[in-house]
Specification:
Blueprint: E1 5-9, H1 17-26, H2 28-31, E2 39-43, H3 49-55, E3 61-64, H4 81-86, E4 91-94, H5 97-101, H6 106-118, E5 122-127, H7 131-135, H8 139-150, E6 161-164, E7 174-175, H9 178-196, E8 206-208, H10 217-221, E9 228-231, H11 238-245, H12 267-279, E10 289-290
Parallel strand pairs: 1-2, 1-9, 2-3, 3-4, 4-5, 5-6, 6-8, 8-9
Antiparallel strand pairs: 7-10
Helix pairs in contact: 6-8, 8-9, 9-12
């Protein structure tokens, strides 16, 4: 179900337990003012999950940065979904472009999604194209292929969060506009319905991740089809983290399919709803805006 969501991803920027403790020492001053209807999550490095979970304010969910596609067993170096569950992890980022750059495949991501869902963890699944893909007008082709292969056999779409993370907006001198992210989020909703045959997939939460700062975040939050953002650099300091979460925006996000009307047990109604969602048209994607060159790590 759609909800306004903010996900801070620490990656490996914080090294010591002292850094983690200092962050959470100062955070409650800010987090106490977070709106209760927002879903706010923070993703420390795996080694800090247990400690961060014990320090986390009750209105912030614990998120992992990755998980193993395997069950518990002889898999050295992996962190299983069962281990994440035991540490009260609610969300897990999967398919991040940095993982894909290291050789992670859509098939592996698909296995990780299923492992998370089997253990009651909501995956935040990332999709996005390269600059070459974008220049060749392949955005929709690439995103649909990734979604098809990553979501194959996934039935619990109400528990899946999607995130559009275009690689071409990182360190290229270009940035993704709110209008462009809205068009792709709309396309992702339609594609989720088409691929799963589940009209309620149109109501999934969709995030944007790409060089989020306090000066541009409102543009994405006010995109009608974008429900929230995932960000890294601005999540490293409590004040910066809170500034992103506290950004005012003026728009109501509407459900694409009314859950009170939809009957998943009526094949005819399901087919009609899927066809209706697929027929909705979207505007052509605008060209990216030229901006100051961005540091590759800041997204």
């Amino acid at each position: 179900m759609r909800k306004t969501m903010f996900v801070g991803n620490w990656k490996t920027y914080k090294t010591t337990m002292t850094e983690v403790q200092e962050f959470f020492r100062d955070l409650p001053v800010y987090s106490s003012r977070f709106k209760p209807e927002y879903e706010v999550a923070l993703a420390p490095a795996t080694i800090h999950l247990a400690s961060a979970g014990g320090l986390m304010p009750s209105n912030i969910a614990l998120c992992a940065q990755d998980c193993s596609p395997f069950p518990p067993g002889a898999h050295s170096g992996h962190t299983t979904a069962e281990q994440l569950k035991a540490n009260h992890v609610k969300y897990c980022i999967l398919g991040h472009f940095e993982r894909r750059a290291d050789g992670e495949t859509d098939e592996q991501i698909n296995g990780k999604i299923k492992r998370c869902l089997e253990n009651g963890i909501s995956p935040i699944v990332c999709f996005g194209e390269t600059l070459v893909d974008y220049d060749n007008d392949m955005t929709r082709v690439v995103v649909e292929r990734q979604m098809r292969d990553c979501l194959r056999g996934v039935t619990q779409m109400e528990n899946v969060v999607l995130c559009y993370t275009p690689l071409w907006s990182i360190g290229t001198g270009f940035y993704t506009t709110g209008d462009y992210s809205n068009i792709i989020a709309d396309f992702m909703r339609k594609t989720a319905v088409k691929l799963t045959g589940n009209p309620m997939a149109a109501n999934c939460t969709i995030l944007f991740g790409g060089q989020i700062t306090s000066t541009n975040v409102r543009e994405y939050l006010e995109a009608p089809e974008v429900d929230g953002v995932m960000f890294a650099i601005a999540a490293l300091k409590p004040a910066d983290f809170a500034e992103i979460v506290g950004t005012p925006f003026n728009i109501n996000k509407m459900l694409r399919v009314d859950p009170s009307v939809h009957n998943p047990n009526d094949p005819k109604k399901v087919a009609t709803a899927v066809a209706a969602e697929a027929e909705k048209t979207g505007a052509a994607a605008p060209a990216p805006q030229q901006g100051a060159p961005a540091a590759p790590a800041q997204h």
